[in-house]
Amino acid sequence: MTLQQEIVGNAMQMAVVNLHPGQTVYCEAGKFLFKTTNVTMETRLSGPSGNGNGNGGQQSGSGGGMGGMLRQAMGTAMQVGQRMLAGESLAFQYFSAQGGEGTVGFAGVLPGEMRALELDGTRAWFAEKDAFVAAESTVQFGIAFQGGRTGMSGGEGFILEKFTGHGTVIIAGAGNFIDLNPADFGGRIEVDTGCVVAFEEGIQYGVQRVGGLNRQGIMNAVFGGEGLSLATLEGNGRVILQSLTIESLANALKKAQGGDKQGPTGGLFSTHTG
Q1: For 76-105, how does the pLDDT look when each residue is reduced to its tens digit (9 = 90+)?
Q2: How far apart are CA 185 and CA 196, in angstroms?
Q3: Is the separation of the CB atoms in 199 and 240 below 8 Å?
Q4: pTM of the complete model
Q5: Using the 8-state DSSP alphabet, how is residue 224 labeled?
Q6: For 219, phi and psi rounded to 5 degrees?
C-alpha cells in the first residue's frame, strides 16, 4: 500500500502522512512534529525488518529460543554501533494507526525542502548524513561507508545513509533542491561536496582535487571557498542537490554574531571543524 503523504510549506517544509489502520512509518528521533490521538508512538533501537507486516520494525529472530534472541540482540547492537559511528540518532520512533486512519507530521532540522522518494526494490538510494526524515516500515535504513581516500578527501561523503526495499522514504535538505542526471551533461558533474543530498544506486560518487598543484590550483583552494576538493557524480540516474550547505549556513550565522569561521580568505584556511 502506497504511503499517503503531502509535503507542505515553503522555506521550512514538513511532511504530513496519512496512515491506514495497521500501517507503520518510522522516523529518526527528533524529526517528529505531531500526531492524531489514535496513532501510537514507540521508540526502539532496532531498525525496521522491512517485511511489511505492520509490526513497526519488530525484528523477528531467526529461529526461536535463546539463540534467536541472541542473534536479534547482536543485530540490533550492530545497527546501533553503525549509527553511532555515523553520528546518527541511536533510536527510531515508530508510528502506527489504530482503529482507523491517523495522521502524523515530520520535518527536517534545517530551513529547506523535503522530498519523497519511491523505492521499487530494484535500486537503492544514498543520501547525505542527517537527510533521513521518515519512511515506511518496508524500507530498510542502513549506513554506507565510502572508500578511505574518497571519504577523507570529501568530508561530507565519507558516511552516507542507504535506503533499500519497497515503499516511500522522505528526506530533507537545506535551501532549494535541483534534480539532475549526469547523463544529460556528458555523463559527469562536479559539485561542492556539501551540496549533494541524495543519488540513486548506479551513480558513481567520488572526490577530485580542485585544479593542479599550480598557481591557479592554489588560488582556487585558498580564495575560492571550496577548499581542495569537489565531489564528482557519474552515470545515469537521479541526483538531488541542495542550494545551501550546512557549512555556509553555519559560517553565515557565525559572521552575524561577530565572528567568521572562514577567516579572511576562506577555502583552505577555513577554521570550520564541524
Answers
A1: 566 666 666 656 677 899 999 999 999 999
A2: 17
A3: yes
A4: 0.76
A5: S
A6: -60, -45
